[in-house]
Specification:
The protein contains five helices and 14 strands. By secondary structure, the protein is α+β, with helices and mostly antiparallel strands. It has a single domain, classed as Endonuclease/exonuclease/phosphatase (Deoxyribonuclease I, Chain A), CATH 3.60.10. The strands form three sheets. Strands 3-4-2-1-14-13 form a six-stranded mixed β-sheet. Strands 5-6-7-8-12-9 form a six-stranded mixed β-sheet. Helix 3 packs parallel to helix 4.
């Protein structure tokens, strides 16, 4: 089973990129970010034609998240419970996995997230970023108590450490790499989550985002900000993790690329 996250940076502009990738990689569950459209404008038919169930939490022009699943899914939350938020940045659903010989399988809970950028920092936007993370951490604490397979997948807008940036010094004063941001991510992980990518390698030089400016892609001036956090029940079934970097070289691509993990 492959679970992926992909910030498409406008679903309507990148629908062909997305459907090509879905057909080639064949992920079972995908969390999308930055839909930049309301629910009724989401290109549902093109994705359903590839065998996916679709759940969206859209917003006009900005933000927006979705979950695509080859398994039946039931949406439990649009927005973090108890956190008042006008921005569409969180969606949570439970997928019903198939069992052996036609019997019902176990459930997999998937949370799709799009963390606030937080710049300029300090300021109201950074305060919102930290408040969003605190609310998610508190909610995730309760989810872990369910002892399910759980994946929190998305664009976290956080560079975990210096290995995750080509030029870490350029990000030292940015909200994506401030000590408070990294500490907030660590508090979430310390509840009992594992960064799927770091469970497979300690190496630097692996990125999921390259800015459109200043030839960042051509210089490989990237950062790793798209993450899959796995609960203990999920990480014990982790097989491999991948970053589909080649998509950044396509014509008119998203500035992010898909990150995925394979679970048994």
């Amino acid at each position: 089973m492959i679970i992926a996250t992909f910030n498409v940076n406008s679903i309507r502009q990148r629908i062909e990129h997305l459907t090509r990738w879905l057909a080639a990689r064949a992920p079972d569950i995908v969390c999308l970010q930055e839909l930049k459209c309301q629910d009724e404008a989401f290109p549902r038919a093109e994705i359903e034609a590839l065998g996916y169930n679709v759940a969206t939490h859209g917003q006009k022009t900005f933000n927006g998240v979705a979950i695509l699943s080859k398994f039946p899914i039931e949406v439990e939350h649009r927005g973090i419970p108890g956190f008042e938020d006008e921005q569409a940045r969180y969606i949570e659903a439970v997928a019903s996995l198939p069992g052996k010989d036609g019997a019902p399988g176990e459930a997999l809970r998937v949370c799709g997230v799009y963390f606030p950028n937080g710049n300029p920092a300090p300021g109201p936007k950074y305060d919102y970023k930290l408040a969003f993370m605190a609310a998610l951490t508190e909610h995730a604490r309760g989810l872990l108590a369910l002892e399910e397979k759980l994946v929190i997948a998305g664009d976290y807008n956080i560079i975990p450490d210096s290995r995750d940036a080509k030029f870490p010094e350029l990000w030292a004063a940015d909200a994506l790499a401030l000590p408070e941001s990294r500490a907030a991510l660590k508090r979430l992980e310390n509840l009992g989550f594992t960064d799927a990518f770091r469970a497979t390698t300690d190496a630097g030089g692996h990125y999921s985002f390259w800015d459109y400016q200043a030839g960042a892609w051509q210089r490989n001036n990237g950062i790793r900000i798209d993450h899959l956090l796995l609960s203990p029940r999920a990480v014990e079934t982790l097989v491999e993790v991948g970053i589909d970097k080649e998509m950044r070289a396509e014509e008119k691509p998203s500035d992010h690329v898909p990150v995925w993990c394979r679970l048994t």
